[in-house]
Automatic annotation (TrEMBL):
Annotated protein name in UniProt: Protein phosphatase
Gene source species: Marinicella pacifica
Domain PPM-type phosphatase: 23-254
A molecular function GO annotation: protein serine/threonine phosphatase activity
């Protein structure tokens, strides 16, 4: 099932240079999983301006699907107008908080977000929460993002190992999320790096990484397959391994 809630196609050219000759192949997929009755994940794609986003509405909170949709709409609309990435995320956060207050939700609406934007030479990555960004290059998988989560803090402090984190009872507790964290305390993580032909990028919700570890992800992305097949294999593996949450993945293969 291939679903894109909105694909933005604007023709605005400001100070951000979008490469005309950037060749890539793209696939995307989203699934509610085996144990969820509906899908609170969403994603946004602007194929012309090379912007890719995944948002994961927080399960257990009111209207998680609304929070993820608001994050998608505000951030994608801001980025296609070449607004600053952090400022755009802050505005999305304000909008989600305002919507939650208007609806008088018992719990605040929340969502994670992971964004990749490409220019002529670089990939600009940003995230809040535990949705992830990976790059596969020369046979090696690199996690560009680092989770804003309780167990990641334990790993960073060397109190538990990465293997222990995967089975920790509080592994789903995020420490940052749009709609939940005020802008004054919001930690928007950002990384800028060079991209090169042959790279493969994966942007995904934790419904994928909860079920498929980095070794399995690397094994799948190492195959010389079309992006659609890679995306399908990732989704199928997550379902086979339990499918306990919504699963969303965007796969890009940058051609030589």
């Amino acid at each position: 099932m291939f679903v894109v809630d909105k694909i933005y196609k604007y023709d605005l050219q400001k100070i951000f240079y979008y490469p005309k000759n950037m060749n890539y192949r793209l696939a995307h997929n989203s699934h509610e999983g085996i144990k969820r009755s509906h899908n609170e994940d969403t994603y946004g794609i602007d194929a012309d301006k090379h912007i890719f986003l995944v948002a994961d509405g927080m399960g257990g909170h009111d209207h998680g699907e609304i929070a993820s949709a608001l994050a998608r709409d505000y951030i994608m609309a801001g980025l296609v107008e070449d607004n600053d990435l952090s400022d755009t995320i802050y505005r999305a956060n304000d909008a989600i908080i305002a919507c939650s207050l208007e609806k008088q939700s018992q719990l605040p609406m929340g969502t994670t977000v992971a964004i990749v934007r490409f220019d002529a030479q670089q990939c600009h990555c940003a995230w809040v929460g535990d949705s992830r960004i990976y790059r596969f290059r020369d046979g090696e998988l690199t996690a560009i993002s680092s989770d804003h989560s309780y167990v990641q803090e334990l790993v960073d402090q060397q109190l538990i190992t990465r293997d222990q984190a995967r089975n920790h009872p509080h592994r789903n507790v995020v420490t940052q999320a749009l709609g939940v964290t005020d802008n004054s305390e919001l930690n928007i993580a950002r990384v800028t790096d060079l991209w090169q032909p042959g790279d493969k990028f994966l942007v995904c919700s934790d419904g994928l990484t909860e079920e498929v570890d980095d070794t399995e992800i690397a094994s799948i992305l190492s195959q010389n397959l079309a992006p659609g097949e890679l995306c399908d294999q990732l989704l199928i593996k997550a379902l086979e391994n339990g499918g306990s949450d919504n699963i969303t993945a965007i796969v890009l293969v940058l051609d030589q």
